[in-house]
Amino acid sequence: GPGKAEMYAGLQELGVANGEDLKETLTNCTEPLKAIEQFQTENGVLLPSLQYALPFLDLHGTPRLEFHQSVFDELREKLLERVSAIALEGKVEERYKKLEDLLEKSFSLVKMPSIQPVVMCVMKHLPKVPEKKLKLVMADKDLYKACAVEVKRQIWQDNQALFGDEVSPLLKQYILEKENILFSNDISFLQNFFSPSPKTRRQGEVVQKLTQMIGKNVKLYDMVLQFLRTLFLRTRNVHYCTLRAELLMSLHDLEISDICTVDPCHKFTWCLDACIREKFVDNKRARELQGFLDGVKKGQEQVLGDLSMILCDPFAINTLALSTIRHLQDLVGQDTLPRESPDLLLLLRMLSLGQGAWDMIDSQVFKEPKMEAELITRFLPLLMSFVVDDHTFTVDQKLPSEEKGPIPYPSTIPEAFTKFLQENRIACEIGLYYILHITKQRNKNAFLRLLPALVETFSDLAFSDIFLHLLTGNLTLLSDEFALEEFCTSLFDGFFLTACSRKENVHRHVLRLLLHLHHKVAPAKLESLQKALEPTKQSGEAVKELYNQLSEKLELRKPSPAEVTEAPSMELPLPTVPTPASR
């Protein structure tokens, strides 16, 4: 427990005798028992009625300490209640004056474990704890730890470095949690990274803790946003953009208007949040979002940096990309060109603002990126032609064939498509989402046709974790195709293995996929894959661990040597099955 000195820290300043005083008295006196009695009288509870009650307790063997302790605990509870009551009653200036006086009187006892809760309670209720006291608390690790978050906020707002130390492990934890979901061993097209609703995500531990730390303090909120921007610039990790939006919406849920009204992104984020919940941008919300973008005034362009970060959140990009694919399909049915659809153009505008977030914040040049005309006049019509190819093929399959024989599925890709995926970021993003879309539809022909275009994409987007997480999930829908040599060769040799050796994350995703689908893969192919995927000296722990798990599974599948060599005899004893009673 605390040292003796610690237990009584500060009593002397208040003129209250402590153990040291008693020791001194006893050392310098002739009649110790008389001295003890006098000390008890002088320092005991000053209630006349107790004079007779205490000897009565002594008779019952109740130690004086136990009695005083229970009186003390009772008084402390009453005092804590009183402090909380003072904090709510009377005129503002008066109540804070009372609390400040109380703090002045009690602060010297803050190191006494028994009194500390009272001092902490007083500080918690003071909107401005005197600077001197805050400095003393800050200088003492234990006191700082024991402080209520209300007091810590007052310390943090003038100590960015200290606040950074508190926030940093939470941000690390957040990124780690996101990566664990992306690399999770459960692969499914039903449950993926984007399945949880925004409201559910905001209940996550890190968002809740940060919300609690910020309270209603605009200064702390700004500091957290500054940390997120800095880390996003340093790492290019888009999960920081997700946290930026989640934090704002978490404060929105709690109706903390002190902060929401001063964040210029609030209404835009709120509207986008509703779209993310539906995984679709409907016409009404599209108008609203466009209104916000068109409403950015001269001299306030800096807000574009914030909006771009909100739009760079993978959950936003996912929603915008899915909506784009849906629009393109609708346009095919309506025989309309992309450039004639204002809704589609708005989706592209928001995609490019989101995809340009890093460059904008890095360069500090706040203007919307220019949309390339080619994207709208050439690339999107190309995607629409793929949709048409699928329709035509499906219809052809159903027509009675006269002499002409089966019409083969178009197998070549227009060179322009491959070039767009390599050179244009937005085209690449939309192209990847189109490939996810046809995989989800179990359209093997279209998938194999477009797969070669993924080997080289804009800044290797086809090998990014989010895309591979979604692709592996959707590939489970094509699990029966894994028995076919041609399909496996295209998928593994033609795509995954081209990057495995240079990209650790791709290695991990392939192993995840095989752990899930190995029983569907043709044995010969599986064996060559097992060789190709063997970890090297440079491989990280995660790859080695996955590879070992896969090897164990494959070991269990192999027939034992005895079964292979002996030809099975035909006269197997029939298992005895109880005959069903004849009816």
UniProtKB/TrEMBL annotation:
Residues 557-583 are annotated as: Disordered. One of its GO terms (biological process) is negative regulation of transcription elongation by RNA polymerase II. It holds the Pfam family COBRA1. One of its GO terms (cellular component) is NELF complex. This is NELFB factor. It comes from Toxostoma redivivum.
